[in-house]
Write a structure and sequence with these properties.
about 375 residues; 9-stranded parallel sheet; binds 5'-deoxyadenosine
Length: about 375
Amino acid sequence: MIHSVPDILNQALLGQSLGQKELIRLLDIQVESERQALFQAAYKLKSKHVGRVVYFRGLVEISNICQKDCTYCGIRRSNSRVKRFRLSEDEIIQAACWAHRNRYGSLVLQGGEVQSEAQTAFIEEILNRLHAATDGELAVTLSLGEQPRDVLRRWRRAGAQRYLLRLETTREDFYQRFHPEDHLWQTRLSCLEDLRQEDYQVGTGVMIGLPGQTRADLADDLLFIKNLDVDMIGMGPFIPHRDTPFASYLADFDKPGSLDLGLKMLACARLLLPDANLAATTALQALDGLGREMGLKAGANIIMPNVTDSEYRHQYQLYEGKPSLDENSEQCRQSLQCTIHRIGETIGYGKWGNSPHYLGRCPG
Ligand code: 5AD
């Protein structure tokens, strides 16, 4: 039997887990009062488990050079219209120091996937320098695609604590539809397992609203992610990019509908994984200037403000309409701070902001 929305929300608030049918019902909500009730329930769980505190992760987009050719992504290998860049060591350290001076508790180094000894050694060197330059006070997250286990180990030893690697979708056949034949969902999954074995805090997520994706797929994504027992979740709406095979989807792209589904997914993720760190991603803000604020109100507790120099931001467009391209780091910080204070929350300056889920998994 499928329950009513209030019954499902009560079930979640009482700490009972939800199943596929309940999640589909929540993702299908059309009535405004039910929508608000969903967000309020997620907010209640967020307040209880992770507090009304937002943690900033300073995002450094280190390079848009990528060996992969994911069909949806603006920096895919075969997009010859994008100008490739790579930040120097000094530029990365400078951005990190800015984040440290501004008391961001942690940093995310994100870039296209490159598997090579040169890249491995470069990141190792950055991690060593970073540690020295910030007295080890910044927690470092890497988001550099799939990597062999020994590389993950070297980076962990050099001081990285967290890693983000999205599954993109948890349905293997569906994954293959959006990736060339040699990009394997199984490889990605086993990389997530390696990360766990190598003692990282692990984050994953999916894209929401891919062509052909159903509500049942999304509900299954959430259940799959819950089963993986991850510490962090980063997921956001799919947005077509003009220089990819999805260019034709731009014309009838339904921004409000995508935003709505993205927010419902966030809220459902909070209901299912109350103590995880959940990011309000930039893709939400690309759909609406207030997207990230809405994300916080729907259950997210993490924001990743860009701390790289704006001249490169134009070259790091994974999807169309990426916001804040011309804002510098300080403008980004200030506008976010206003947003967060406006909704009555505080910023966890100077704190690492490990998820309670991780702390529960690894006490001490
Ligand atoms: N729309 C939304 N998200 C995208 N990503 C890549 N391309 C797009 C797009 N067109 C996301 C993927 C990837 C992350 C870094 O960016 O989920 O894992």
